Amino acid sequence: MQMLSMIVFLVMSLMASIAMLFMSSIFWVWVMTDVGTLFLIPFLSAETRPKKSWFTGVATYFVIQFFGSVMILGGIILDWAIEAADWSSAMMCFGFALKLGMVPLHFWVSRSFVYFHYGGIFIVGAGQKVFVVACVPLFSDVPLCAYAYYFMAVGSMVYGPIAMFNAIAVKSFLAYSSVTHTGFLVIGSFFGLHIVYAYSFIYCVSMAFLVFMLWSGDCKFMKNLGSELPGYYKTGFVCIAMSFSGFPPFLDFCTKFVILQLSMEQDSTITMVAILTSSLINLIVWVWVLFIATSSEVKEPGFLSGTTGQNVLNMSCIIWNLFMGAGFSMLY
What we know:
Elements: H1 2-20, H2 26-45, H3 54-82, H4 85-100, H5 107-113, H6 118-135, H7 143-165, H8 170-189, H9 193-216, H10 225-228, H11 234-245, H12 251-265, H13 269-295, H14 308-331
Helix pairs in contact: 1-2, 1-6, 2-3, 2-6, 3-4, 3-5, 4-7, 5-8, 6-8, 6-9, 7-8, 7-13, 8-9, 9-12, 11-13, 11-14, 12-13, 12-14
């Protein structure tokens, strides 16, 4: 029954998020954002293995999302009441950046993620952000807000990998990885929504594989990753790590290369430098993770030693990360 309720609330949140994409008014975008967040609360607080600490993460997440929503609504009302476009855009920019956890408003991300179950990490860290990023106005009428939003995205891209390198807990590592990819999603939105949708689809699928593998081993600390990660998933995990590290021709390299290419076409020097810097630090981080994951003793006999379903999932992960990169490159 508990699992059923988690699925029901998750589906309701997903429906509200999808409805956001068809709203022409920023007010209804705000309404659907909050409705989706409210439906997420029961999903995040439900645990198949109850823990006393769940409330800390969910409460932090809910308070931050509520405060961000208040700022967005305040900006909308301000624009309606006195047509103060500058202050209205500033409040909405702050509210959306807070809800997305962009640098320097990322303080809540790791504090919440360490108490979430892995399903909640995937939804909050990947799934929900996709819909919010796609619906954020780019504040083209107020250049100061547009630049602030842009530089917060650039800061997220660079800061995320640095914080990942210092993460002790696996869930904190995933939190800062989410900050990094949020930056890339926002930068992609400046080049068109088709980039956001393509990048987010690839990111969500890759994160689904990664989160499921970490959940299967109940992985808690980075230093124990090699012993906690199931052996029959290690080959797939290596492919994910090599993809996120940016090795060609893996999938994540191809997505970031497309954004880099678009930045070059637009002569956006700051974006190019940020992408290259983020990618270099990210490469070092994931090579470190690969070393930890492969240097310790395995929990299971090894490759293809799991059940049929586990082996299929592992092979699907390998195919997705290794061969889909070539397909994505041909599309762009």
